[in-house]
Amino acid sequence: MTAPLPALPAKIHPLVRAFLDTRDALEETMVRFGSPIHLVFPQVYAENLKRFRAVLDLHLPRYRICYAHKVNQSRAFVRTAEYAGIAIDVASPQELGSAIGAGFGSMRIEVTGPKGEAFLRDLIDCGVTINVDNLWELRRIAELAGDRAKVPVLLRVSGFDDGSVSRFGVPLAHIDRAFDLLSANRSRISFLGFAFHIDSGEPAERIRAIDACLALVEQAYGHGLMPSVLNIGGGFRQVFTSDADRFDGYVLALREALLSRGEQMSWGNNTFGYHVDGGAVHGIPVFHKYANTVPATKMLADLLAAPLERHGGRTVAQVAGDNMLELWLEPGKALVDHAGVTVARVEFVKELADGTVLVNLDISRDSVTPADQEVMIDPIVLSSSAHDSDAPVGDGAVTPLRSAADTAPTPHPMHETGPVAVYFAGRLCLERDLITNHKVWLAQRPRPGDLVVFPNTGAYHMDLSAATASMHPVPMKLAVAHRAGSFQVYRDGDYEPHVSVGLPPARRTPPRGPHRPPVPRRPSHVDNEGAP
After folding, report:
1. Alpha-carbon distance 152 to 46, whole Å?
2. What is the pTM of this model?
3. Distances from the Cα of 429 to the Cαs of 337, 426, 433, 434, 469, in angstroms?
4. pLDDT for 283-318, tens place per residue?
5. Which CATH number fits domain 14-41+339-479: 2.130.10.10, 3.40.50.2300, 2.40.37.10, 3.40.190.10?
Protein backbone atom coordinates (compact mmCIF):
# COMPACT_ATOMS: atom_id res chain seq x y z
CA MET A 1 0.00 0.00 0.00
CA THR A 2 1.33 3.43 -0.93
CA ALA A 3 2.02 5.68 2.05
CA PRO A 4 -0.26 8.73 2.23
CA LEU A 5 1.19 12.00 1.07
CA PRO A 6 2.43 14.39 3.77
CA ALA A 7 -0.54 16.54 4.73
CA LEU A 8 -1.77 19.06 7.28
CA PRO A 9 -5.54 18.60 6.96
CA ALA A 10 -7.57 21.47 8.35
CA LYS A 11 -10.60 21.21 10.58
CA ILE A 12 -13.60 22.80 8.84
CA HIS A 13 -16.88 23.72 10.53
CA PRO A 14 -19.89 21.98 8.91
CA LEU A 15 -21.56 25.29 8.05
CA VAL A 16 -18.41 26.56 6.33
CA ARG A 17 -18.01 23.25 4.53
CA ALA A 18 -21.64 23.40 3.37
CA PHE A 19 -21.12 26.87 1.91
CA LEU A 20 -17.97 25.85 0.08
CA ASP A 21 -19.69 22.69 -1.19
CA THR A 22 -22.71 24.57 -2.53
CA ARG A 23 -22.61 24.75 -6.30
CA ASP A 24 -22.27 28.34 -7.53
CA ALA A 25 -22.36 29.91 -4.03
CA LEU A 26 -18.70 30.77 -3.72
CA GLU A 27 -18.16 31.68 -7.36
CA GLU A 28 -21.22 33.93 -7.33
CA THR A 29 -19.78 35.70 -4.31
CA MET A 30 -16.39 36.09 -5.98
CA VAL A 31 -17.91 37.46 -9.17
CA ARG A 32 -20.03 39.96 -7.26
CA PHE A 33 -17.45 41.17 -4.76
CA GLY A 34 -14.13 40.35 -6.42
CA SER A 35 -11.07 38.49 -5.21
CA PRO A 36 -9.52 38.06 -2.70
CA ILE A 37 -12.12 38.08 0.09
CA HIS A 38 -12.42 37.27 3.77
CA LEU A 39 -15.57 35.37 4.73
CA VAL A 40 -16.84 35.44 8.31
CA PHE A 41 -19.58 33.20 9.69
CA PRO A 42 -21.34 34.90 12.64
CA GLN A 43 -23.50 31.84 13.31
CA VAL A 44 -20.36 29.81 13.99
CA TYR A 45 -19.28 32.57 16.38
CA ALA A 46 -22.67 32.23 18.11
CA GLU A 47 -22.19 28.46 18.48
CA ASN A 48 -18.75 28.97 20.02
CA LEU A 49 -20.19 31.50 22.45
CA LYS A 50 -23.03 29.15 23.41
CA ARG A 51 -20.56 26.38 24.25
CA PHE A 52 -18.37 28.78 26.22
CA ARG A 53 -21.36 29.95 28.24
CA ALA A 54 -22.44 26.38 28.96
CA VAL A 55 -19.12 25.67 30.68
CA LEU A 56 -19.32 28.85 32.74
CA ASP A 57 -22.95 28.24 33.70
CA LEU A 58 -21.98 24.82 35.01
CA HIS A 59 -19.26 26.13 37.31
CA LEU A 60 -19.91 29.76 38.24
CA PRO A 61 -22.77 31.80 39.71
CA ARG A 62 -21.33 35.09 38.39
CA TYR A 63 -19.21 35.77 35.33
CA ARG A 64 -18.76 38.14 32.42
CA ILE A 65 -17.55 37.37 28.89
CA CYS A 66 -15.74 40.27 27.19
CA TYR A 67 -15.19 39.57 23.49
CA ALA A 68 -11.63 40.60 22.59
CA HIS A 69 -12.29 42.90 19.62
CA LYS A 70 -8.64 42.95 18.55
CA VAL A 71 -8.88 39.38 17.27
CA ASN A 72 -10.87 40.55 14.23
CA GLN A 73 -12.16 43.90 12.97
CA SER A 74 -15.40 42.36 11.67
CA ARG A 75 -18.50 44.37 12.58
CA ALA A 76 -20.60 41.24 12.07
CA PHE A 77 -18.78 39.56 14.96
CA VAL A 78 -19.15 42.67 17.14
CA ARG A 79 -22.87 42.92 16.37
CA THR A 80 -23.30 39.22 17.16
CA ALA A 81 -21.59 39.74 20.51
CA GLU A 82 -23.73 42.78 21.30
CA TYR A 83 -26.96 41.03 20.35
CA ALA A 84 -25.99 38.05 22.52
CA GLY A 85 -25.69 40.40 25.50
CA ILE A 86 -22.05 39.85 26.38
CA ALA A 87 -19.46 42.57 27.01
CA ILE A 88 -16.55 43.64 24.82
CA ASP A 89 -12.85 44.28 25.37
CA VAL A 90 -11.36 47.06 23.21
CA ALA A 91 -7.80 48.31 22.97
CA SER A 92 -7.85 51.49 20.86
CA PRO A 93 -10.00 54.56 20.15
CA GLN A 94 -11.06 52.96 16.88
CA GLU A 95 -12.18 49.74 18.57
CA LEU A 96 -14.03 51.81 21.17
CA GLY A 97 -15.87 53.61 18.37
CA SER A 98 -16.63 50.28 16.72
CA ALA A 99 -18.12 48.89 19.95
CA ILE A 100 -20.25 51.98 20.59
CA GLY A 101 -21.39 52.02 16.98
CA ALA A 102 -22.45 48.38 17.27
CA GLY A 103 -24.69 49.20 20.24
CA PHE A 104 -22.56 48.51 23.29
CA GLY A 105 -23.26 50.78 26.26
CA SER A 106 -20.50 51.93 28.61
CA MET A 107 -21.45 49.31 31.22
CA ARG A 108 -20.49 46.55 28.79
CA ILE A 109 -17.18 47.97 27.54
CA GLU A 110 -13.78 47.23 29.05
CA VAL A 111 -10.62 48.90 27.71
CA THR A 112 -7.26 47.14 27.92
CA GLY A 113 -3.71 47.73 26.73
CA PRO A 114 -1.42 50.77 26.98
CA LYS A 115 -3.24 54.12 26.76
CA GLY A 116 -2.06 57.66 26.12
CA GLU A 117 -3.48 60.73 27.83
CA ALA A 118 -5.90 61.68 25.05
CA PHE A 119 -7.37 58.19 25.07
CA LEU A 120 -7.66 58.22 28.87
CA ARG A 121 -9.63 61.47 28.72
CA ASP A 122 -12.06 59.93 26.22
CA LEU A 123 -12.45 56.80 28.34
CA ILE A 124 -13.23 58.80 31.46
CA ASP A 125 -15.81 60.82 29.51
CA CYS A 126 -17.41 57.61 28.21
CA GLY A 127 -17.64 55.97 31.63
CA VAL A 128 -16.26 52.61 30.49
CA THR A 129 -14.25 50.24 32.68
CA ILE A 130 -10.52 50.90 32.36
CA ASN A 131 -8.18 47.95 32.74
CA VAL A 132 -5.16 49.87 34.07
CA ASP A 133 -1.82 48.86 32.58
CA ASN A 134 0.62 50.86 34.73
CA LEU A 135 0.99 53.26 37.65
CA TRP A 136 1.18 56.32 35.40
CA GLU A 137 -2.25 55.45 33.96
CA LEU A 138 -3.68 55.00 37.45
CA ARG A 139 -2.27 58.33 38.62
CA ARG A 140 -3.54 60.21 35.56
CA ILE A 141 -7.01 58.67 35.87
CA ALA A 142 -7.21 60.00 39.43
CA GLU A 143 -6.06 63.45 38.30
CA LEU A 144 -8.34 63.61 35.25
CA ALA A 145 -11.44 62.24 36.98
CA GLY A 146 -12.04 65.41 38.94
CA ASP A 147 -15.40 65.60 40.69
CA ARG A 148 -17.27 63.54 38.12
CA ALA A 149 -18.68 60.05 38.69
CA LYS A 150 -16.16 57.52 39.90
CA VAL A 151 -14.10 55.89 37.18
CA PRO A 152 -14.43 52.06 37.25
CA VAL A 153 -11.01 50.40 36.99
CA LEU A 154 -9.39 47.01 37.09
CA LEU A 155 -5.71 46.71 37.96
CA ARG A 156 -3.74 44.55 35.56
CA VAL A 157 -0.89 42.80 37.35
CA SER A 158 2.09 40.80 36.11
CA GLY A 159 5.31 39.23 37.36
CA PHE A 160 3.91 35.91 38.57
CA ASP A 161 7.04 34.12 37.33
CA ASP A 162 10.39 35.56 38.40
CA GLY A 163 12.00 34.15 35.26
CA SER A 164 9.60 35.84 32.86
CA VAL A 165 9.21 39.60 32.35
CA SER A 166 6.15 41.13 30.69
CA ARG A 167 5.93 44.64 29.23
CA PHE A 168 2.31 44.82 30.38
CA GLY A 169 0.71 45.30 33.76
CA VAL A 170 1.84 46.48 37.21
CA PRO A 171 4.59 44.19 38.56
CA LEU A 172 3.78 42.44 41.83
CA ALA A 173 6.80 44.22 43.29
CA HIS A 174 5.03 47.58 42.79
CA ILE A 175 1.62 46.55 44.04
CA ASP A 176 1.87 48.51 47.32
CA ARG A 177 2.27 51.73 45.35
CA ALA A 178 -0.88 50.84 43.42
CA PHE A 179 -2.78 50.18 46.66
CA ASP A 180 -1.68 53.56 48.01
CA LEU A 181 -2.98 55.34 44.89
CA LEU A 182 -6.28 53.45 44.98
CA SER A 183 -6.80 54.10 48.68
CA ALA A 184 -5.99 57.81 48.37
CA ASN A 185 -8.43 58.26 45.46
CA ARG A 186 -11.46 56.26 46.56
CA SER A 187 -13.69 59.26 45.93
CA ARG A 188 -12.62 59.35 42.27
CA ILE A 189 -11.88 55.73 41.39
CA SER A 190 -14.16 52.72 41.77
CA PHE A 191 -11.74 49.81 42.15
CA LEU A 192 -13.43 46.68 40.77
CA GLY A 193 -10.63 44.15 41.14
CA PHE A 194 -7.61 42.56 39.49
CA ALA A 195 -6.83 41.40 35.97
CA PHE A 196 -4.08 39.51 34.18
CA HIS A 197 -3.39 38.06 30.76
CA ILE A 198 -1.14 35.03 30.27
CA ASP A 199 0.44 34.81 26.82
CA SER A 200 0.98 31.08 27.28
CA GLY A 201 -1.74 28.46 27.15
CA GLU A 202 -0.11 26.42 29.90
CA PRO A 203 -2.68 25.73 32.67
CA ALA A 204 -0.07 25.81 35.45
CA GLU A 205 0.91 29.40 34.62
CA ARG A 206 -2.70 30.58 34.65
CA ILE A 207 -3.42 28.80 37.94
CA ARG A 208 -0.35 30.42 39.49
CA ALA A 209 -1.61 33.83 38.34
CA ILE A 210 -5.10 33.18 39.76
CA ASP A 211 -3.66 32.14 43.10
CA ALA A 212 -1.47 35.27 43.21
CA CYS A 213 -4.48 37.49 42.43
CA LEU A 214 -6.54 35.83 45.17
CA ALA A 215 -3.76 36.74 47.59
CA LEU A 216 -3.93 40.31 46.29
CA VAL A 217 -7.66 40.38 47.00
CA GLU A 218 -6.87 39.57 50.64
CA GLN A 219 -4.22 42.32 50.74
CA ALA A 220 -6.65 44.82 49.21
CA TYR A 221 -9.07 44.30 52.09
CA GLY A 222 -6.30 45.49 54.42
CA HIS A 223 -6.15 48.78 52.49
CA GLY A 224 -9.88 49.39 52.82
CA LEU A 225 -10.56 48.26 49.24
CA MET A 226 -13.35 45.86 48.28
CA PRO A 227 -12.46 44.11 44.99
CA SER A 228 -15.25 41.99 43.49
CA VAL A 229 -13.85 41.07 40.05
CA LEU A 230 -11.08 38.74 38.91
CA ASN A 231 -10.35 39.05 35.18
CA ILE A 232 -8.37 36.05 33.92
CA GLY A 233 -7.98 37.37 30.36
CA GLY A 234 -8.05 35.29 27.19
CA GLY A 235 -5.54 33.03 25.52
CA PHE A 236 -7.89 30.06 25.07
CA ARG A 237 -6.54 27.94 22.28
CA GLN A 238 -7.93 26.97 18.89
CA VAL A 239 -7.94 23.57 17.21
CA PHE A 240 -6.73 23.91 13.63
CA THR A 241 -5.97 20.37 12.52
CA SER A 242 -8.50 17.65 11.79
CA ASP A 243 -5.94 14.87 12.10
CA ALA A 244 -3.33 15.11 14.86
CA ASP A 245 -1.50 11.97 13.68
CA ARG A 246 -1.02 13.34 10.17
CA PHE A 247 0.12 16.66 11.63
CA ASP A 248 2.74 14.85 13.71
CA GLY A 249 3.76 12.82 10.66
CA TYR A 250 4.26 15.97 8.60
CA VAL A 251 6.37 17.58 11.32
CA LEU A 252 8.47 14.43 11.63
CA ALA A 253 9.10 14.45 7.86
CA LEU A 254 9.96 18.15 8.06
CA ARG A 255 12.50 17.53 10.83
CA GLU A 256 14.03 14.72 8.81
CA ALA A 257 14.28 17.02 5.78
CA LEU A 258 16.16 19.58 7.88
CA LEU A 259 18.73 16.80 8.46
CA SER A 260 18.92 16.28 4.67
CA ARG A 261 16.98 13.03 4.88
CA GLY A 262 14.23 12.69 2.32
CA GLU A 263 12.64 15.34 0.14
CA GLN A 264 13.14 19.03 0.89
CA MET A 265 10.03 20.38 2.60
CA SER A 266 10.78 24.05 3.24
CA TRP A 267 11.50 27.07 1.05
CA GLY A 268 15.10 28.20 1.01
CA ASN A 269 16.80 27.81 4.34
CA ASN A 270 13.68 28.24 6.46
CA THR A 271 13.87 26.13 9.63
CA PHE A 272 10.66 27.49 11.25
CA GLY A 273 12.48 28.16 14.51
CA TYR A 274 14.25 24.82 14.76
CA HIS A 275 18.02 24.62 14.83
CA VAL A 276 20.19 21.71 13.78
CA ASP A 277 23.08 20.75 16.04
CA GLY A 278 25.02 17.53 16.45
CA GLY A 279 22.96 15.65 13.89
CA ALA A 280 19.68 16.40 15.65
CA VAL A 281 16.89 18.97 15.40
CA HIS A 282 16.31 21.09 18.50
CA GLY A 283 13.99 23.87 19.66
CA ILE A 284 10.32 24.80 19.56
CA PRO A 285 8.96 25.71 16.11
CA VAL A 286 7.08 28.93 15.45
CA PHE A 287 4.07 26.88 14.35
CA HIS A 288 3.69 24.78 17.52
CA LYS A 289 0.22 26.15 18.37
CA TYR A 290 -1.25 24.56 15.22
CA ALA A 291 -0.65 21.13 16.78
CA ASN A 292 -3.09 21.82 19.63
CA THR A 293 -5.93 19.31 20.01
CA VAL A 294 -7.52 20.64 23.23
CA PRO A 295 -10.62 22.78 22.53
CA ALA A 296 -11.09 26.05 24.36
CA THR A 297 -14.12 24.76 26.26
CA LYS A 298 -12.14 21.86 27.75
CA MET A 299 -9.28 24.18 28.60
CA LEU A 300 -11.74 26.47 30.39
CA ALA A 301 -13.51 23.61 32.20
CA ASP A 302 -10.20 22.16 33.39
CA LEU A 303 -9.12 25.57 34.64
CA LEU A 304 -12.30 26.15 36.63
CA ALA A 305 -12.07 22.66 38.14
CA ALA A 306 -8.37 22.98 39.04
CA PRO A 307 -7.65 22.62 42.79
CA LEU A 308 -5.85 25.44 44.62
CA GLU A 309 -3.43 24.09 47.20
CA ARG A 310 -3.39 27.30 49.26
CA HIS A 311 -7.19 27.07 49.56
CA GLY A 312 -7.40 23.50 50.85
CA GLY A 313 -7.81 21.92 47.43
CA ARG A 314 -10.99 23.80 46.59
CA THR A 315 -11.34 24.52 42.89
CA VAL A 316 -10.85 27.86 41.17
CA ALA A 317 -14.60 28.10 40.63
CA GLN A 318 -15.39 27.25 44.26
CA VAL A 319 -12.96 29.81 45.66
CA ALA A 320 -14.30 32.51 43.31
CA GLY A 321 -17.87 31.70 44.32
CA ASP A 322 -17.10 31.49 48.04
CA ASN A 323 -15.49 34.94 47.91
CA MET A 324 -18.31 36.42 45.79
CA LEU A 325 -15.89 37.24 43.00
CA GLU A 326 -17.26 37.73 39.51
CA LEU A 327 -14.96 36.03 37.03
CA TRP A 328 -14.33 38.00 33.84
CA LEU A 329 -12.85 36.48 30.69
CA GLU A 330 -11.59 38.02 27.44
CA PRO A 331 -11.92 35.29 24.80
CA GLY A 332 -11.16 36.25 21.23
CA LYS A 333 -9.70 33.27 19.38
CA ALA A 334 -12.08 30.89 21.14
CA LEU A 335 -15.14 32.78 19.87
CA VAL A 336 -14.04 33.18 16.24
CA ASP A 337 -12.55 29.68 15.98
CA HIS A 338 -13.54 28.23 12.57
CA ALA A 339 -15.76 31.26 11.96
CA GLY A 340 -13.67 32.70 9.13
CA VAL A 341 -11.92 31.69 5.92
CA THR A 342 -10.03 33.61 3.25
CA VAL A 343 -10.43 32.94 -0.47
CA ALA A 344 -8.12 33.94 -3.31
CA ARG A 345 -7.72 33.07 -7.00
CA VAL A 346 -4.83 31.37 -8.72
CA GLU A 347 -3.21 33.88 -11.09
CA PHE A 348 -0.65 31.55 -12.64
CA VAL A 349 1.54 28.52 -11.89
CA LYS A 350 5.25 28.50 -12.65
CA GLU A 351 8.08 26.02 -12.38
CA LEU A 352 11.55 27.07 -11.22
CA ALA A 353 14.86 25.76 -12.56
CA ASP A 354 15.09 23.11 -9.85
CA GLY A 355 11.56 21.83 -10.52
CA THR A 356 9.92 23.68 -7.64
CA VAL A 357 6.29 24.56 -8.43
CA LEU A 358 4.95 27.96 -7.33
CA VAL A 359 1.22 28.69 -7.28
CA ASN A 360 0.87 32.48 -7.46
CA LEU A 361 -2.28 33.99 -5.95
CA ASP A 362 -3.93 37.42 -6.02
CA ILE A 363 -3.32 37.87 -2.29
CA SER A 364 -0.25 38.50 -0.15
CA ARG A 365 1.06 36.64 2.86
CA ASP A 366 0.17 39.46 5.26
CA SER A 367 -3.55 38.94 4.56
CA VAL A 368 -3.64 35.33 5.75
CA THR A 369 -0.88 34.99 8.33
CA PRO A 370 -0.38 36.62 11.73
CA ALA A 371 2.99 38.41 11.71
CA ASP A 372 5.92 36.03 11.20
CA GLN A 373 4.10 32.78 11.93
CA GLU A 374 3.88 29.85 9.56
CA VAL A 375 0.30 28.61 9.27
CA MET A 376 0.61 24.83 9.37
CA ILE A 377 -2.68 23.76 7.84
CA ASP A 378 -3.18 23.00 4.17
CA PRO A 379 -5.02 25.47 1.93
CA ILE A 380 -7.85 23.91 -0.07
CA VAL A 381 -7.91 24.21 -3.85
CA LEU A 382 -11.33 24.30 -5.49
CA SER A 383 -11.10 23.69 -9.23
CA SER A 384 -13.15 26.06 -11.30
CA SER A 385 -15.82 24.35 -13.39
CA ALA A 386 -14.77 26.63 -16.23
CA HIS A 387 -11.93 24.13 -16.71
CA ASP A 388 -14.30 21.19 -16.96
CA SER A 389 -15.27 20.67 -20.60
CA ASP A 390 -18.08 18.36 -19.51
CA ALA A 391 -19.75 20.87 -17.22
CA PRO A 392 -23.04 22.22 -18.62
CA VAL A 393 -23.24 25.94 -19.17
CA GLY A 394 -24.38 27.73 -16.04
CA ASP A 395 -23.64 24.76 -13.80
CA GLY A 396 -21.65 24.98 -10.58
CA ALA A 397 -18.50 27.01 -10.28
CA VAL A 398 -16.40 24.92 -7.93
CA THR A 399 -15.95 21.25 -7.22
CA PRO A 400 -17.14 19.98 -3.83
CA LEU A 401 -14.76 20.58 -0.95
CA ARG A 402 -12.34 17.73 -0.48
CA SER A 403 -9.02 16.87 1.09
CA ALA A 404 -6.62 17.31 -1.80
CA ALA A 405 -3.97 14.88 -0.57
CA ASP A 406 -6.46 12.05 -0.12
CA THR A 407 -8.64 12.42 -3.22
CA ALA A 408 -7.91 10.95 -6.60
CA PRO A 409 -7.91 13.74 -9.20
CA THR A 410 -10.45 13.96 -11.98
CA PRO A 411 -8.56 14.01 -15.31
CA HIS A 412 -8.81 17.14 -17.40
CA PRO A 413 -7.68 17.45 -21.02
CA MET A 414 -4.26 19.05 -21.45
CA HIS A 415 -3.82 19.10 -17.69
CA GLU A 416 -1.14 17.31 -15.68
CA THR A 417 -2.75 14.89 -13.24
CA GLY A 418 -1.41 13.20 -10.16
CA PRO A 419 -0.10 14.56 -6.87
CA VAL A 420 2.11 17.63 -6.99
CA ALA A 421 4.09 19.43 -4.31
CA VAL A 422 3.81 23.23 -4.38
CA TYR A 423 4.49 26.43 -2.53
CA PHE A 424 1.84 29.16 -2.54
CA ALA A 425 3.24 32.58 -3.44
CA GLY A 426 1.82 36.07 -2.93
CA ARG A 427 1.34 38.97 -5.30
CA LEU A 428 4.02 41.33 -3.98
CA CYS A 429 7.38 41.89 -5.66
CA LEU A 430 9.20 40.66 -2.57
CA GLU A 431 11.09 37.40 -2.15
CA ARG A 432 9.62 37.04 1.32
CA ASP A 433 6.02 37.06 0.07
CA LEU A 434 5.67 33.29 0.26
CA ILE A 435 2.29 32.41 1.72
CA THR A 436 3.52 28.92 2.56
CA ASN A 437 7.19 28.38 3.34
CA HIS A 438 6.38 24.71 3.87
CA LYS A 439 5.62 22.39 0.97
CA VAL A 440 1.98 21.53 0.29
CA TRP A 441 0.97 18.38 -1.58
CA LEU A 442 -2.08 18.66 -3.84
CA ALA A 443 -4.03 16.01 -5.70
CA GLN A 444 -3.34 17.82 -8.97
CA ARG A 445 -1.66 20.92 -10.34
CA PRO A 446 -3.85 24.05 -9.91
CA ARG A 447 -4.72 26.24 -12.88
CA PRO A 448 -5.40 29.96 -13.30
CA GLY A 449 -8.88 30.82 -12.05
CA ASP A 450 -9.01 28.06 -9.44
CA LEU A 451 -9.99 29.17 -5.95
CA VAL A 452 -7.78 28.63 -2.92
CA VAL A 453 -9.38 28.60 0.51
CA PHE A 454 -7.32 29.32 3.63
CA PRO A 455 -9.20 27.77 6.57
CA ASN A 456 -9.75 29.27 10.02
CA THR A 457 -8.31 32.73 9.38
CA GLY A 458 -10.77 34.56 11.64
CA ALA A 459 -8.44 34.94 14.62
CA TYR A 460 -5.73 37.53 13.88
CA HIS A 461 -4.84 36.04 10.46
CA MET A 462 -7.07 38.47 8.56
CA ASP A 463 -6.13 41.72 10.27
CA LEU A 464 -3.01 41.56 12.43
CA SER A 465 -0.47 42.08 9.64
CA ALA A 466 -2.72 43.32 6.83
CA ALA A 467 -1.02 45.97 4.68
CA THR A 468 -1.63 47.90 1.48
CA ALA A 469 1.78 47.37 -0.10
CA SER A 470 1.99 48.19 -3.82
CA MET A 471 -1.34 49.99 -3.29
CA HIS A 472 -3.21 46.69 -3.20
CA PRO A 473 -6.33 47.13 -1.03
CA VAL A 474 -6.87 44.77 1.86
CA PRO A 475 -9.35 41.99 1.02
CA MET A 476 -13.02 42.82 1.48
CA LYS A 477 -14.74 41.21 4.44
CA LEU A 478 -18.13 39.55 3.94
CA ALA A 479 -20.52 37.86 6.36
CA VAL A 480 -22.14 34.56 5.40
CA ALA A 481 -25.36 33.42 7.10
CA HIS A 482 -27.58 30.39 6.58
CA ARG A 483 -31.20 31.48 6.95
CA ALA A 484 -34.46 29.79 5.96
CA GLY A 485 -32.72 27.07 3.98
CA SER A 486 -30.35 29.25 1.99
CA PHE A 487 -27.05 31.07 2.26
CA GLN A 488 -26.99 34.85 2.25
CA VAL A 489 -23.83 36.90 1.84
CA TYR A 490 -23.63 40.45 3.22
CA ARG A 491 -21.05 43.16 3.29
CA ASP A 492 -19.59 42.87 6.77
CA GLY A 493 -20.91 46.25 7.84
CA ASP A 494 -24.45 45.38 6.75
CA TYR A 495 -24.89 42.11 8.66
CA GLU A 496 -27.46 42.10 11.45
CA PRO A 497 -28.04 39.08 13.72
CA HIS A 498 -31.60 39.93 14.75
CA VAL A 499 -33.20 37.34 12.46
CA SER A 500 -30.75 34.58 13.37
CA VAL A 501 -31.60 31.70 15.66
CA GLY A 502 -29.64 30.37 18.61
CA LEU A 503 -28.70 33.68 20.22
CA PRO A 504 -30.62 33.99 23.50
CA PRO A 505 -29.89 37.16 25.47
CA ALA A 506 -27.25 36.75 28.15
CA ARG A 507 -28.21 36.35 31.76
CA ARG A 508 -26.76 38.51 34.51
CA THR A 509 -26.32 41.55 32.29
CA PRO A 510 -28.09 44.92 32.39
CA PRO A 511 -30.91 45.26 29.86
CA ARG A 512 -30.06 46.90 26.58
CA GLY A 513 -31.70 49.97 25.23
CA PRO A 514 -34.39 49.82 22.55
CA HIS A 515 -33.33 47.58 19.71
CA ARG A 516 -33.58 49.12 16.25
CA PRO A 517 -32.83 46.34 13.81
CA PRO A 518 -31.81 47.77 10.45
CA VAL A 519 -32.91 45.96 7.33
CA PRO A 520 -30.01 43.98 5.78
CA ARG A 521 -29.01 45.53 2.49
CA ARG A 522 -28.87 43.49 -0.68
CA PRO A 523 -27.72 40.11 0.55
CA SER A 524 -26.38 37.66 -2.00
CA HIS A 525 -28.83 34.75 -1.95
CA VAL A 526 -27.98 31.13 -2.69
CA ASP A 527 -30.51 28.34 -2.10
CA ASN A 528 -29.18 25.40 -0.14
CA GLU A 529 -31.76 23.31 1.64
CA GLY A 530 -29.18 20.71 2.68
CA ALA A 531 -26.96 22.97 4.81
CA PRO A 532 -26.95 22.50 8.59
Report:
1. 29
2. 0.88
3. 32, 9, 8, 11, 10
4. 999 998 899 999 999 999 999 999 999 999 999 999
5. 2.40.37.10
